[in-house]
Amino acid sequence: MTNTIAEFFYQFEGFKSLVEGMNPVTVSVLIIIAAGALVTVFMATVGGFGTIAERKISADLQARIGPNRVGPYGAFQLIADGIKMISKEDIFPRDADKFLFYLAPFICVFGVVSTFAVFPFGSGIALSQMNIGVFYLLAISSLVGVGIFLGGYASNSKWSMLGGMRGASQIISYEIPVTLSIMSIIVLAGGLSFESVLASQSGLPHNWYIFHNPFTFIGFFVFFVGGLAETNRAPFDLPEAESELVSGYHTEYTGIRFGLFALAEYMEIFILCGVAATLFLGGYNLPLGVLKGTVPEQFLQFGTILIKTLALYYVVIWVRWTFPRLRVDQLMTICWKYLTPMAIFNLVGCAVWMVAFDGKSMFDLFFGH
Amino acid sequence: MFLNLLFLTSALLTVGCSVAVLAVKNLMHACVFLLGALIGIAGLYATLGADFVAVTQIMVYVGGVVILMLFAVMLTGGKDHVSKTQKLKSLIPAMGNKTSYLIGCLTALVFFLTQGYLVSKLLGSIEVQKQVDTFSPTVQELGELLITNHVLPFELSSVLLLGALVGAAIIARPRKARPQYEEEAEEHH
Amino acid sequence: MFGLEWYLGISLVLFFVGIAVILSRKNIVAILLGVELILNSAALNFVAYSRFVTQNLDGHIFSLFIIVIAAAEAAVGLAIVIRYFQINNTIHVDEAKELRG
Hints:
The complex is a heterotrimer of chains A (369), B (189) and C (101).
Chain A: H1 5-10, H2 13-18, H3 24-61, H4 77-87, H5 98-115, H6 133-140, H7 143-154, H8 158-189, H9 194-199, H10 214-230, H11 242-245, H12 255-280, H13 295-320, H14 328-356, H15 362-367
Helix pairs in contact in A: 3-4, 3-12, 4-12, 5-6, 5-7, 5-12, 7-8, 8-10, 8-14, 10-12, 10-14, 12-13
Chain B: H1 2-23, H2 27-47, H3 51-75, H4 88-91, H5 98-123, H6 139-147, H7 151-172, H8 180-188
Chain C: H1 4-24, H2 28-54, H3 58-88
């Protein structure tokens, strides 16, 4: 098993001979830069495919065909979209706050991309194995709220302003139930890192944390609903409600700046689904210990986490095209009167369960020795 | 090497952004520069091996305090009333008087000498490490300290936070304005 | 390579910038920005001393409490500012003299 991405590469003989005679510090710096670039490109691709998935799945749900002109089944639509966005005119509204207007999309993208530093794609396939990885991910992703608020404020438009205010207040509010339901998993795992969370789960569903006890089962849904609201997805897409606010906080953005906002949103959904899969659904663990300790295992693990994440991604899009949008007061009622008390109840329940049953899962209690 | 690089970038970010908070005219921009300074301080905590404090700093300030500040600036108009016409002379009474300059310089000199003497006396016995190389995870130890040695301030801070939450909610709650006719009736009496 | 003095120097800069912000700005929100800078300079000092001098985690705990208190202070302070603005339609410190004796 490997700890960092550098050690992962050192497993291969060809790589060893390639870097022979170089300073190990230089090698690790180069690897980290290369891996960071790789992850960013990978995430941009995921975000791009997110837009296609959205359009194809929505077309499927509404019995349409969807984009089908560019490439087989419209698969290269994202390249066409990208070229269109880059070559579009970059319009800057008069009387807008220039500095903040230019800064806002980058704050959003920075907040999302930084979360991938700790996300485990497989044992050892993570940029960093921070011992407070989960906490770091929660903290750095709150930058997105600042970006959305600044984007709305700087556009000097009523729609954008309302969208930005809604976005910031929504993200601040829903951070509480999301963090509390993650905390209940942390209580069970006994550590703030992704590794400690993953170590006590395994590939088969009876060891997943979602089925560990009744509180985590509720907690998963609290987390997922709160996460949907934090990423501004329907039915919580009030910041960009197109029937009320034109397009919300990015009404005035055109071209690649609008593209960065959209990309940040799709990448954030991906990371939300990934974190849900890692914390509650067993993460990258393979069942029955197949190929333990070998290199192919790491690639299989990567596939496992990708399948789980994309399944949840489908659910997110499915939810969007199924449920109607909420009103603002309903949104706040759901957060403060239902989700937060439930999350606190789950946290206390998990703590009591740990003491009462010595940390055993339901499966162990019923069928265990 | 990583550490030095991280220190230099964080220090530059912190100092540059905090000076910008002082220098810029627009309050919204000042809030954004404050955000930069706070992230820089989180980086400095990371170079000191304080991982938990660094992430808490980002969590509390970026996710909470800075967004609150931005909201407050937006809701109150964000005008800053720094007037360039006001000179220091009219602001501070004893400005431009030789005796007051002399007294001020003497006070500062005495102050610094006393401080220096006291600090050297107090710190003379303390051993300062030139460089500490090892980093260890702090989370577990911090948790144990918080519920053993520092349990009283820990519990008190929860009371403080509850008080702040309730207080902020009560203060900022829009109060019902008195109906117009009542005021008119009072005027007639 | 960078010892205690560097951290103390940065903390000093932060402290004096905070004081200067408090003295030069006339907007109450801007003054709260200065207060945040000062609190952060103190917290940075605590963590630096705990690494280079005492070698235990008491400094970390103190800076955690500083962060908690700064958050509470910001929440209550900004609530008061917004309420004051609703009543008096200004947050200029020189005009806030209702309670002056």
